Amino acid sequence: MPYQRGENVTLGVWQIIPEEMRSDIVKNEEYNFDGALANDNYNLLIYLHGNGADRASSIELFAILREFFHIFAVDYRGKFNHEKLYLMSMLADFFRL
Predict the structure, then answer these.
(1) Model pTM?
(2) Residue 70: phi, psi to the nearest 5?
(3) Which contacts (CB < 8 Å, 24+ apart) does range 53-57 have?
(4) Can you tell me the distance from the alpha carbon of 8 to that of 53, in angstroms, rounded to the nearest whole number?
(5) 3-class secondary structure for the chain?
(6) What is the maximum alpha-carbon separation in the chain?
(7) 74-86 residue pLDDT tens
C-alpha cells in the first residue's frame, strides 16, 4: 500500500552501538541509548539492506562497520508481511528517521 499522510507505520530498526562503547551497555538496563548518539567520535550510518535481504542478513558486516560507525539498520515497511514496496513510501519512512 503506498504511503498516505498521517498513517501509523512501524519499521524494524536495530541500533548498533560502536564496538568501543559496547562494554558500557552490558548488564546496564538504564543505558542512555539516545545519549550514545551524541558521541562525536562516531558518525551515524543508516544501513538499508539490498533487495531480497533483511537487516539480519548483514550481521557479519555490522561487526566490521561498528568499528567505525554508530549504526541504525532498517528493514523496509512491510518486509515480513508481504506488502508491496513503493519508492515514495520507503523514502518517506527514511526521511522520518
Answers:
(1) 0.68
(2) -95, 125
(3) 54/12, 54/79, 54/80, 55/12, 55/14
(4) 24
(5) CCCCCCCCCCCCEEEECCHHHHHHHCCCCCCCHHHHCCCCCCEEEEEECCCCCCHHHHHHHHHHHCCCEEEEEECCCCCCCCCCCCHHHHHHHHHHC
(6) 42
(7) 876 655 544 556 6
